[in-house]
Structure formats: structure tokens, C-alpha cells
Write a structure and sequence with these properties.
Length: 780
């Protein structure tokens, strides 16, 4: 048994979202404020309501007006002395819901007997809806109307008091501005939500399950005659444990023995966790067995010896008290005794320490020093603590040790759901990778678990770390994407994309992209936009161009990925699924009309491009003359129904230059980024100190002879030139900020900035008022 997917509705930004879960580890990724935390929180709210109660702000904001209107209708009916029909239907479309869709084998049907929709159901997919709804509409109505009446009476009293203080005022003073709770039904529920709302479960019909449409899930509608399932249908079915993002490691806390308690769930020092684990699974005083007898005897012997010593120590003190007349003949006599508990041995700050090897001065011995827990690096404390928490979760689920006393194997829930939020907090990059690779194995390290499918573990992790994401296969990634108001709903919402569907399982493209992204550590899954560049020179210089010339763009969350034009198109399925705004900075890669050999760019020569990205992705054609004259619209690929998604290609274009020995302007046709940069900055490169490409460019510019001659010399130099060395020489320029950015890159960066500004607007109609302004063309 395992959870196939969730359908979340009316919870914060998750208006109507389907989230597929892997049968093992699922990773939630996405940019900031995309809904990852909301998805983790909704699971806590519904599956652990005692520890994580609902708040009014959990209701999606677009439903607040309807709730306020319902309250106003109740007040109006009271004023008109009308009878109010109290039914749940007006609430249904606003209530937070969580649909759990399980896959259940035939032999596991006894676990889900309360959820089976019909007598014909024989296993497979099974759904249950958890809905946060009013407990009793009559009591809610009465409490709300009573609170409104009290608020109105207070306002009347305030006005009467003001008039009494100014009886002769003409005209009478205006009523005071006075805000008294509750102003509306939403305001009332902000303080009384948990009193009047509860979670109820309903059985769902697998036959009515509908696929998502236009980025939104389509949860099935419950018939008006649906009755809630009695009791908690998930009790004995799912065990839930979680580690939240705010852990507070390194601070001493009092942790209750209950492993599911809020304090324990919030995290604590390793010594506190060890005490909790010992108390629950190892304490010999709880259900002792023959192995514990020796420990219990030792504790009792120590207690007797300590009592004897205390009696002797306090004898003089008690004798002095007796001299004061107490105790008398009939009074009870005081005695001192101790009560030792095994767990007391762990109740101190040095219960956990770290050994440090030290070589003595004479080299003869190797004494060991011990440092307290707080003196170890916080990152390693965190890793050890988190791994220990996972071990505790596993053993609590499997009733290891003393936790199994009085229980049978049948008491173990068939499904264990573990939620970990942002494990990268306080973890170094390498440690993050270790954690995500080992976490699931730790949760399955039990003789009854391993690869067995009888008892299943599902680990759900949310993260902002590329190091964590790159250690997880695409099949386990779920990408949360923000949608502005007007695209899928009247308010900004989020949608979830199953990245296992991007390339096809086990495809050659999936293998390439997975390996490449792991090598690059790009933040594609967390950025607001991406820039794909051709080679090492662009990778080093483009970020510095952004810092020097585009301050607004520098403040945006943009990831830069180096991938040549012959491979960038392999990222197309991923970019399309992410809906990630992307600028591709690439080269023309011109080929001769006959023979197909690489040649210097020229207009009217019938040349073709060898760049697979330009040919197959954007702009989608290979004629060099057509590419050189392409306008901004031709270089941009829009996302169809998604107006915020676009991909733009930036490649070399004709440049107007004036070279040594030639009167008047000419047109240069650069071949790559390096000669385009040189043509835009002839004065800088004519005097730039350096070797390799820089020296050859300097010599070509100094020799002059016209744009064609200079360009030919640069083209020949680029055949064997070291481009990374070239970029390092350019970085050493004293006044780097005065370097002119190649025009094709400048236009691309300006386009990217304008698109990011549109993404920042959360209301879609404001960004769809008109088509984008066309870019100016070069007059060649």
C-alpha cells in the first residue's frame, strides 16, 4: 500500500492542485513562495491536527469574500427576523480539503474497510477526502450572531457616552471611528476557528476521478447525501512523522517522552533526542525482561547504598531538630531516601560528547579528550540529530524495544509517511548530499522492512537546495510553479509539475540532462529565470556584465548554465515543463553553402548554421541571412496559453565599426562571443595587455585593413585560441564597467529584465494589455 497522489483544494495558494508521490522518496522543489511549504503544511494540518491546528489564513484568500457575504446574510436575516437555512452547501467550495488516493493490494483490504466505496471494489486505487468543515452550523450561527450583537451594543454605548459628554453640541458630534471584534464572519473565525470547525473524512469513488485541466486539479464533487465516516479512518492505517524547517539545534530543551509531541517534532539537541529514544525503547523500568534484571539490580543496590549514606549524613541534623520538641512520641519520624532512574544518567549537558584524539608530547600515549555536544560543528550536529530523528521515527513505527510491550504485529500501520522540511538548514553542501542519499535507507533499516512491500515508507522532502535536488532522480521531483492571478484563478495560485513525465523514464535525454545538471549544480528548479550560455568565456563574463550594467537584473534570482549550442536544445523538454523564463546566449556557428565547412559569417553567401539550438528550438530555422535579419519576435518563442513563459535566443548580429586605415563606418560579422566583444570595444582591445587570443586580437586590430580583414584574423585566431584564458584577461581590465556589452547580449538581457518585471506583477490582465515592443534592427 502507498499513496499514489494527493489532491489539495482551497488551502492557501494551493487552490486546486494534484501532487503525485513517489513510492519511496519525493522531493518538492520550486522558487520561493511557490507553495512547497503550503503542501507540507497541509499534510501536517490534516494528518496531525492535534499538533498543527488550522488557522483562518489557511483558507485560500479568494474565498474570503464569499464567507464574509455569508456572515452578512446571517446578520441581515436576523435584522429582518427571518429564519436562516443552515446547510453546508454554501461552505463546500471554500473549505480546505485533502484527497488521499491510495494504491491498495487485494490482501490489504482489511486496513481500508471503512474507505471502500462499493461492494464491487476489489483493490487498486482508493480515495478518501479529509475536509475541514463546521462542526455544528447551528452553534456557529448562534455564537457569531451573539458576538455581532455584543459588538453592536458596545458601539451604541460608545455613541451614547459621547453624546452624554457633549449634550449641547450643535450639530451633534459624529459617531466615533470604532473597530470592535468581530467585523465579519472571517474576523470571527480568526479567533474561534478551532472551536467551531473540525476535520471529517468522506469516501471517494475511483470511477469519478478526473485528470487535471489547465494546471488545476479537478477534485470530484461529493453528493449532497454523502455522510462522513465515523471515527478516524486513517487510524491504524498511516503513521506520520515530520521534521520542520525551524529546528533550533544547539539549544537545551525539555523534550517530552512522547515522540510525536510538538517539542520533539520541532527538533532538539541530540542528547535530548537520545533521552526520548531511551525512555521509549530502552528504559529497563518499563516492561522489564530477563535482559534488564542485571541493570535493575544494580540500580537498586546503588539506591540502597545511597540511602544508607544519606541517613548517616542527616543524622546530626535530625538530632538537632528533635531537640526542638519534634517529633514527639506519636509523631511520624522523618527519613531521607532516594529514587534513582536509569534515564537520570542522561539528564545532563555532557550526556553526548565528541572524542578528540591528542598525541602526548613524548609520543608514547594517545590520550582522548572529550568535548561537549555544543562544541561540535553545527552542521554535523544537525546531520547527526536529523539522522537520529529518522531512526527514532522508524523504531516508533515498528514498536522497537519497550514500545512493543502489549502490542501485536497487527498494530503496526502499513504505511509510514515522513515529512522533512528544508533539510539544508545548517547543513554544508556535501552533508546535504549525504543526507538525501541516506535518509530513505535509514527509514528502512529494520529486519521487517528493507525491500518488503508489506510495510511501506514514503519520504517527502521540501528543499531550496540544488545539492539536494541534484542527488535525486527526475522521477522523484515535483516542481511547484507560481501562477499569477488571471491565469488559473482570480488570485495568485500554484501548480505542481511531475518531472517524471518530462523525458520519459530511462531515455537517453534524461540520462544526459540528469548527469549534466549534477555536474553543473545549476539552480534551475529554484530560479525565476535561466540564462544558458555557450562556453566558459560567457560563463565568466556575462555575470560580470550583469553586475556592472544591469543592477535590477542583478537583484533577481537567475541561474546561469554553461551548455553549448549543440546541446542546449536537450533542455527544451525540461524548460517547457518548468515554464522557466529562459535566455539562450549562443553562437551562429556558420557553415559554407557547399561542403559544409565552418566559415567566417557573411551575408548573401548562402550560409547555414550548425547550431542545433537555433535550428530545432528557437528561432527554428538554419539560414544565416534570415538569422542575421531576425527581429525580436522571431528570436522569441512564447509559451502559448502561458503568457509569462518565453524563450529568447541571442546570437551574433552585424555590428557597425570603424577600423584603422579605413574611412567611414563598416559592417562587421562576428563569429563568436569573443570577436563580437572585441568589435564592440576596438579601442579597449587595441591596447589590452595579454597573451593568446588577446594578443592576436590586438595585433589584428592594430594591423587594420577593414572590418573584413580584421574579422578574418580574429576568426583564424579563434580556431585554436583558449577562450577561458581570454575571459580572464578581460576580467583584469581596470575599468571593466566601461566595456560595452555585445549588442546581441545586451538586447537579450534587456528583454529578460522586461519579462521578469512582468512576472513580478501578480495580476495577469495588467501584463496582457498589449504585445511586446519590437526591437530595433541593425541597418547592415
Amino acid at each position: 500500500m502507498h499513496i499514489e497522489f494527493l489532491e489539495i483544494a482551497n488551502f492557501r495558494k494551493l487552490l486546486s492542485t494534484r501532487v503525485d508521490l513517489s513510492s519511496t522518496t519525493t522531493l518538492f522543489v520550486g522558487a520561493n513562495n511557490s507553495g512547497k511549504t503550503s503542501a507540507m503544511l497541509v499534510l501536517r494540518r490534516f494528518l496531525s491536527p492535534r499538533r498543527c491546528p488550522f488557522e483562518m489564513h489557511d483558507f485560500t484568500l479568494c474565498h474570503w469574500p464569499s464567507i464574509i457575504a455569508l456572515g452578512s446574510k446571517w446578520v441581515a436575516a436576523r435584522n429582518a427576523e427571518e429564519v436562516v437555512e443552515l446547510v453546508v452547501e454554501p461552505w463546500v467550495s471554500s473549505l480546505p480539503t485533502l484527497d488521499l488516493w491510495l494504491h491498495v493490494e487485494t490482501g490489504e483490504m482489511h486496513h481500508v474497510r471503512d474507505l471502500i466505496p462499493t461492494l464491487d471494489w476489489e483493490g487498486g486505487r482508493l480515495g478518501v477526502r479529509l475536509r475541514y468543515e463546521p462542526k455544528d452550523l447551528g452553534l456557529l450561527y448562534k455564537a457569531f450572531i451573539g458576538a455581532i450583537g455584543d459588538a453592536e451594543a458596545m458601539k451604541v454605548a460608545a455613541i451614547a457616552a459621547m453624546q452624554a459628554d457633549n449634550p449641547d453640541a450643535d450639530p451633534p458630534p459624529a459617531p466615533p471611528k470604532l473597530t470592535i471584534w468581530p467585523e465579519s464572519l472571517v474576523d470571527f473565525l480568526s479567533k474561534r476557528l478551532s472551536t467551531h470547525f473540525t476535520i471529517r473524512a468522506y469516501s471517494l469513488d475511483p470511477a469519478q476521478l478526473a485528470p487535471p485541466e489547465k494546471s488545476l486539479a479537478k477534485p470530484q464533487l461529493l453528493p449532497s447525501t454523502s455522510r462522513a465516516i465515523e471515527g478516524d479512518p486513517l487510524s491504524g492505517l498511516i503513521r506520520v512523522h515530520d521534521i520542520s524547517a525551524q529546528r533550533g539545534f544547539g539549544e537545551e530543551q525539555q523534550v517530552p517522552e512522547d515522540d510525536d509531541s510538538p517539542a520533539a517534532a520541532a527538533g532538539s539537541r541530540l542528547s535530548d533526542q537520545l533521552k526520548s529514544y531511551y525512555s521509549k525503547h530502552l528504559d529497563p523500568t518499563k516492561g522489564p525482561d530477563p535482559k534488564d534484571l542485571g541493570a535493575l539490580q544494580a540500580i537498586e543496590a546503588a539506591q540502597d547504598a545511597f540511602d544508607k549514606r544519606l541517613t548517616e549524613s542527616f543524622k546530626a541534623a535530625f538530632t538537632e531538630v528533635e531537640g526542638m520538641g519534634y517529633p514527639g512520641v506519636t509523631d511520624p519520624r522523618p527519613r531521607v531516601s532516594t529514587r534513582l532512574k536509569a534515564i537520570d544518567g542522561l539528564n545532563h549537558s555532557a550526556a553526548i560528547s565528541f572524542e578528540v584524539d591528542v598525541i602526548a608530547e613524548d609520543g608514547a600515549t594517545t590520550p582522548v579528550l572529550r568535548l561537549p555536544e555544543a562544541n561540535n560543528g553545527l552542521g554535523y550536529q544537525n546531520l547527526i540529530s536529523m539522522i537520529f530523528r529518522l531512526m527514532s521515527f522508524r523504531d516508533a513505527w515498528m514498536r522497537v524495544g519497550k514500545a512493543s510491550t502489549g502490542l501485536t504485529a497487527a498494530a503496526t500501520e502499513p504505511l509510514h509517511l515522513v515529512l522533512v522540511e528544508e533539510p539544508e538548514a545548517h547543513l554544508h553542501a556535501q552533508v546535504q548530499q549525504v543526507f538525501i542519499k541516506k535518509a530513505y535507507a535509514v527509514l528502512r533499516a529494520h529486519e521487517d522492512l528493507g525491500d518488503s512491500k508489506k510495510l511501506r515508507t514514503q519520504l517527502v522532502v521540501s528543499t531550496h537546495s540544488s545539492h539536494v535536488a541534484h542527488e535525486t532522480s527526475f522521477a522523484c521531483l515535483r516542481y511547484f510553479r507560481r501562477l499569477p492571478a488571471g491565469m488559473a484563478a482570480k488570485v495568485p495560485v500554484s501548480t505542481v509539475i511531475n518531472l517524471s513525465e518530462v523525458f520519459g523514464l530511462g531515455s537517453e535525454t534524461e540520462r544526459f540532462v540528469t548527469r549534466y545538471l549534477r555536474a553543473q549544480h545549476a539552480d534551475l528548479f529554484f530560479a525565476d529565470a535561466a540564462i544558458l550560455v555557450e562556453g566558459p568565456a560567457e560563463r565568466m563574463l556575462v555575470p560580470n556584465f550583469v553586475r556592472a550594467h544591469y543592477d535590477e537584473l542583478n537583484q533577481c534570482y537567475i541561474t546561469l548554465l554553461e551548455i553549448g549550442g549543440s546541446h542546449a536544445h536537450r533542455l527544451k523538454p525540461l524548460i517547457d515543463h518548468l515554464g522557466l523564463l529562459t535566455l539562450i546566449i549562443t553562437d551562429l556557428d556558420t557553415l559554407a553553402e557547399t561542403g559544409g565547412a565552418s566559415v567566417q559569417p557573411a551575408k548573401g553567401a548562402g550560409q547555414k548554421t550548425n547550431n542545433a539550438t537555433l535550428k530545432t528550438w528557437v528561432p527554428g530555422f538554419d539560414d544565416v541571412d534570415q538569422l542575421m535579419s531576425a527581429d525580436g519576435a522571431a528570436k522569441t518563442l512564447r509559451g502559448g496559453v502561458d503568457p509569462l513563459f518565453a524563450v529568447r535566443a541571442a546570437f551574433q548580429m552585424p555590428i557597425g565599426v570603424t577600423t584603422t586605415g579605413v574611412v567611414g563606418p563598416e559592417v562587421a560579422y562576428p563569429y563568436t562571443f569573443e570577436d563580437a566583444l572585441a568589435f564592440e570595444n576596438l579601442g579597449v582591445f587595441s591596447a589590452l595587455a595579454g597573451t593568446g587570443l588577446v594578443r592576436k586580437f590586438r595585433d589584428a586590430i592594430t594591423a587594420g585593413g577593414g572590418a573584413t580583414a580584421v574579422g578574418e584574423q580574429m576568426y583564424l585566431a579563434l580556431k585554436n585560441g583558449k577562450k577561458a584564458e581570454f575571459a580572464l584577461d578581460v576580467l583584469e581590465v581596470e575599468k571593466f564597467e566601461e566595456i560595452v556589452v555585445p549588442r546581441y547580449i545586451a538586447e537579450g538581457l534587456e528583454w529578460l529584465l522586461s519579462q521578469l518585471k512582468k512576472k513580478q506583477v501578480e495580476i495577469l490582465p495588467q501584463i496582457m494589455e498589449g504585445p511586446p515592443a519590437p526591437l530595433e534592427e541593425v541597418d547592415a
